[in-house]
Amino acid sequence: xSDKPGIRYRFDLPDGGVRTLEFIFDAVDFKLQGDxxxxxxxxxxxxxxxxANCPLDPAAVSHCPAALRMxxxxxxxxxxxxxxxVGVTVCESGRTVRVExxxxxxxxxxxxxxxxxxxxxxxxxxxxxxxxxLPFATEAETMYRSVSMYLLARELVGGAxxxxxxxxxxxxxxxxxxxxxxxxxxxxxxxxxxxxxAIALLDSHATLLPDSLEHSLxxxxxxxxxxxx
Length: 229
Hints:
By secondary structure, the chain is an alpha+beta fold. It has helices at about 65-75, 105-115, 125-130, 140-155, 165-190, 195-220; strands at about 5-10, 20-25, 85-90, 95-100. It has one domain.
């Protein structure tokens, strides 16, 4: 890896093959670096299955930034089927995670990382979570990390818009729209289904968070009793 922060996903495939996806990020803002190599598939064009809530200007942006970044990863893994078991090794600074999981779970982790760092105006809000990437996080971990990120944003950014959880819930409603329409794009990208199922897994987290926020915060309250003293 380069001197810039990076995350590498190694896939050990059922046929004995290996695929490696390496992502390099800016050292300050953790935006995904480098121009996507190769051709720009038709399904990455901004106007193709464009997200209903996309705020990008077609006159200035020709391709969906998230789809464009996904294209090389999807191309490398297009032969996989959703429920095939793959070995995945994730290497980042100071940590290596090794799991055996389904192809769709593995791709969900990869696509989530890409979407949070590629420049989509909505999922860009999740870039702080990508900076402290936790591959294959559980639903409880994702809830804790999402709420913690939002409360830290409230502290660092402030403003009346972040005074309560209204903006948090609004964000995740918009992320659900992005996931829905990105799934439509990916349906045109590949004849196999792991990529679309991977987005569906991401969307299940985005759907869960708003609906279970109050309940989850109630469950977490007992962990913070020491802060009352």
